[in-house]
Amino acid sequence: MMPAHSIIKSAFGLLVVAMASAPDLALAQRSIDFENLPGRARLSTRSPVAAAEDLSPPRATSRKKTAARKSGKIVQTGGLSPDDPAEPLDRAADEAADAELDPLRDLLNQSATPIDLLAALQLAGEQNPLILLGQQRVVEAVAQRQLAAAQFLPTVNLGTSVDSHWGVLQQSTGNILSVRREDVFVGAGANAIAAGSVNIPGVVWTLNVSDSIFNYLVNRQEVDRREFASQATRQDVLLRVAVAYNELARSEAARSIAIVSRDDARELARITAAYLKTGQGRKPDADRSATELARREARLIEAEGNVVRASAALCQTLHLDPSMRLHVTDNQVIPRSIVPDPIPLPELLAIALMHRPELNERRSAVTQTLLALKGAKMLPFSPTVFLGFSTGGFGGGSDLVAQPTTSLPFGRGDPRFAALQGRADLDVMGYWTLQNLGVGNKSMIAAARSRLSSADFELLITLDRIRAEVAASQAKTFARFARIRSCELAIDAGQQAFTEDMTRVRGFQGMPLEAIDSLRLLAQSRLDYLNVIIDYNKAQFELYVALGRPPSEILVRPAEPQTPPLIPPEPAP
User: 323-359 burial, b if ≥16 CB within 10 A, otherwise e?
Assistant: First the structure.
C-alpha cells in the first residue's frame, strides 16, 4: 500500500491523455516536448513523426480521383492504384473524400453541448425518473404513516335520516300490531329509529389498541425503509452517470488516439509510396503501408461511432434527448483518487456498514417484521374499543297515538311528524376477539415469525454483498493504479521506437515493416494507457459508492509525522 503523499503526488504527476475533439484539432496539433515533461505524456491529433523534418522526396500537388476508394477497394496511400504506385498522397483531398464517405461525420460535426461531471450529477439528481420514483415512494409512505397516526382520532358524521313504516309489527310481548309511523332525525349522526341507538353515531371512535399502535410503528419504519431505498437508488443512478461520463471521455480520447495513429500510418504510407514512385522502394512495402492506413481509417470510423453511442448512453441516464450531442469539458484524462489508499480494508468495511443505505434499509425491514410479530402476539389480549356519540333533533308519530296539542292538528289515523326535539345518545363498548378459536391468531404469529426470519436472512445476504463489493473495489483500484506506471513506460518506449523506425525509413536504412509493427504497438499502448486510467477512475467511483458515500472527514487521514533525523553529539575536545 502506497503512502498518502505518494498517492497525491501520483494523481497530479502521472501521465495525461489529451482528448481533442473535432473542433479542437487545431489546438491539439501543437508539438509537445516530451523530454521537458517527465512523468507526463500527452497525445494530440498531430503526430510527432508527421511534424518532424520531411526527409523523403518532395510530393506532387496532383492526385487521382477517388473512384477506387468509392468502390470499396483498398488501394495504396490514399487511393493510388497499383498501375501508378508512385502517385503521391494529397492529404486535403483525402480528408475531403473521407468526409464524403463517412456517414458519422454529420453527427460528429453537429453542435455539441459541453458538460462536466458535476453538472451531469446535478442534472441526474433533478430529473432522472428512477430517482424521482424513489422520492414519490417516500411521499407515499409518509402519507400512510400519517393515516396510521390518524386512526387515534375520532370520526365525525353529520347527516339526516327519515324512517317510515306501513304494516304490522311485533311487540316484545309477541303482540302483532298494524301501525303506520314516521320519524325524522337531523344532527350529528344518522339512521335513528324508534327507541334504539343511533346506528351511525355522530362522533365515533373505534380501534383495536395493540393493532393501532403497532400499525403506526410499522408504518414509521416503512418510511425509514423507503428513504434508505431512495438513497440507494440515487447512489446507483449517480454511479451510472459517473460511469457513462467516463465512457464518453474514454470514447472521445480513443477517437483522438485513432486520429494520431491514422496520421502516423498516413505519413508512413506517403513515404513508402514516394520511394516506390522514385524506384527506391518495394511495392510490397507500399502495399503493407496502404493496408495499415486503411485499417487505421476503419478504426477511426469505429471510434467515431463509439463517441455517438457513448453520448446517447449518457443522455439516457440524464433523461435527455438522445439526439443531443454531448461533449465532456475535460481536455485531459487523469487519475482521480477519491478514497485515500492508506485506509485499510477492515476500516473500509466498518465505514460501509455504517453508511450503506441498502444495509440500513434491510435493518428497517427487520424492525418492521419484529414489530409485526409483537403485534400479532398481543392481538388476542388487546381489546377493541368502540365509542359513539350522537345528538340532534328527532321527531315523529304514528296512527296509534294522538298528536300533542303543540303539533299540527291531525287526527288519529293520519300520518304526521311531530315537532323536532333534542336527542343525545352515547354508546361505549369494549370486547376481546379470539379469531377462529385461536387457530387464526396462531397462524398469524407463525407467518409473522417466518417474515422476521426472511428479513434476517436478507440482511445477511446484503451484508455479504456489501463486503464483497468493498473488497473487490479496493482490489481493482490497487491493481489498476499499479498498471498506470507500466503503461506509461510502454508509451515512452513505443514512441521512441516508432520515431527511430520512421527516421530510418526516411533515410532508407530501415524496413517499413518494422515501422508498421512499432506503430501498432504504440497505438495499442496508448489505448491501454487510456483504458487503465478510465478504469481506475471508475473503480474509485465504485469504491466510494460501495462505502455509502461517506462524508469527507471520515476519509481524510492526518499526514504521517516526519521524524527529524538525529544529529549525533559533537565529540568532546
Answer: ebbbbbebbebbbebbbebebeeeebbebbbebbbbb
Q: Can you tell me which residue has the cell 510490397?
A: 284
Cα-atom radius of gyration of the chain, to the nearest Å? Answer: 42
SS (H, E, C) 504-539: HHHCCCCCHHHHHHHHHHHHHHHHHHHHHHHHHHHH
Inter-residue contact 547 to 348 (CB < 8 Å): yes
> What DSSP string describes 59-107?
PPS----SHHHHTT---BTTTB-TTSTTPPP-HHHHHHHHHHH-TTHHH
**pLDDT, tens digit (0-9, with 9 covering 90-100), for 362-414:** 999 999 999 999 999 999 999 999 999 999 988 877 777 655 544 444 445 45
The pTM (predicted TM-score) of the whole model is 0.71
In this structure, are strands 326-328 and 203-208 parallel, antiparallel, or unpaired?
unpaired
Reference 546, options 482, 466, 480, 488; nearest CA is 466
Q: Reduced to 3 states, what is the DSSP secondary structure of residue 426? A: strand
pLDDT in tens, 287-313: 889 999 999 999 998 998 899 899 999
Pairing relation of β-strands 155-156 and 203-208?
antiparallel
Q: CB atoms < 10 A from the CB of 476, how many?
A: 17
Work out whether strand 384-398 and strand 421-431 pair parallel, antiparallel, or are unpaired. Answer: antiparallel
Query: Distances from the Cα of 245 to the Cαs of 168, 457, 542, in angstroms?
Result: 85, 36, 14
Which residue is it, cell 505524456? 41
Instruction: Provide the pLDDT for residue 5.
Output: 39
Name the region of 96 (left: φ>0; alpha: ψ -120 to 50; beta: rest): alpha
- pLDDT (tens digit per residue) in 449-460: 999 999 999 999
Distance CA 555, CA 20 (A): 34
C-alpha cell at 415: 300520518
Lookup: cell for 564: 527529524
Which residues, 6 or more positions from 558, have their beta carbon under 8 angstroms from its beta carbon?
none
**From residue 158, how far is each of 186, 191, 195, 204, 388 by CA, in Å?**
8, 11, 20, 11, 13
With the CA atoms of 225, 227, 233 and 234 taken in that order, what torsion angle do they form, in degrees rounded to the nearest 10?
Answer: -160
Pair 322, 315: CB distance under 8 Å: yes
Contact criterion met (CB below 8 Å) for 45 and 356: no
Count of residues for the chain?
Answer: 573
Helix (H, G, I), strand (E, B) or coil at 57: coil
Q: Strand ranges (DSSP E) for 345-476?
A: 384-398, 421-431
Residue 408 confidence (pLDDT): 46
What is the model's pLDDT at position 533?
94
CA pseudo-torsion sign 404, 406, 407, 411: positive
Strands (DSSP E) contained in 120-211 are 155-156, 159-170, 176-190, 200-201, 203-208
Locate cell 398469524: which residue?
444
Whole-angstrom Cα distance, residue 470 to residue 468?
6
